[in-house]
Specification:
The chain has 205 residues and is α/β, with parallel strands linked by helices. It is built from seven helices and seven strands, in the order E-H-E-H-H-E-H-E-H-H-E-H-E-E. The protein has helices at residues 25-36, 47-50, 54-64, 78-91, 102-106, 108-115, 126-133, and strands at residues 2-7, 41-46, 68-72, 96-100, 119-121, 144-148, 151-154. A seven-stranded mixed sheet has the order 2-1-3-4-5-6-7, sandwiched between helices. A hairpin with a 2-residue loop joins strand 6 (144-148) and strand 7 (151-154). The chain is globular, with a radius of gyration of 16 Å.
């Protein structure tokens, strides 16, 4: 099975916070977890740092001919991610398309409606995305927004990963060179790491 994980290029958000473009560590975690579960054909395409617009990215995906495509979305990448998901569904009808990321987790029904993807994974995705890749029905998994006919159903939330140390280290080898990414450090390149998950603040908005 060929699995491709995509970090889209936000062509409509050029110039927005380009001083800090970090590696998509979430996708690297997904890839490493899938590897541990026995999947070997995994590719990460960071179209954001490579500045690959969706039209050209679609040609790459046609050549890769994946069985499953996972599209990451945050508030900056949302528009491009929605467009890409729809393009994949049209050009590669045999490929299963799933979406995830912060924007999807906060607005699963809206993003699934806009993207036309098969399902949306809400919150931490490693375990459930691996189950989907193994053939599990998304409708039977927790924390999934999926289609039931023309309606969208959201299953009850999934528990958080109890021990982050149980997760394998991110598959940095599948990402572009760290020298391409940009941070606010004086010395480069910089390798980003995560020591916890979630946000420690209580924003009222």
């Amino acid at each position: 099975m060929k699995i491709v994980l995509v970090n889209p290029y936000p062509k409509d958000s050029q110039g927005l916070n380009e001083a800090t473009i970090y590696p998509p560590i979430g996708l690297a975690y997904l890839a490493s977890y899938l590897r541990r579960e026995g999947f070997s054909e995994i590719e990460i395409i960071d179209a954001n740092i490579r500045r690959i617009a969706n039209e050209r990215l679609l040609e790459q995906l046609k050549q890769a001919n994946p069985d499953i495509v996972g599209v990451h979305m945050n508030v900056v990448l949302g528009g491009s991610g929605v467009e890409l998901s729809r393009l994949i569904r049209q050009a590669l009808p045999a490929a299963r398309v799933f979406i995830g990321g912060p924007l999807v987790s906060s607005n699963p029904v809206e993003m699934l409606t806009l993207s036309g993807a098969e399902a949306a994974v809400i919150g931490e995705a490693e375990e459930r995305f691996a189950e989907i890749c193994k053939g599990a029905d998304p409708a039977g998994l927790p924390g999934i927004a999926h289609w039931r006919g023309k309606e969208i159903e959201v299953t009850p939330g999934a528990p958080l990963v109890a021990d982050l140390d149980d997760l394998p280290f991110p598959a940095y080898d599948l990402l572009p060179p760290l020298s391409l990414y940009r941070g606010r450090a004086r010395k480069k390149p910089v390798g980003a790491i995560l020591t916890s998950r979630g946000c420690p603040f209580n924003c009222s908005f």
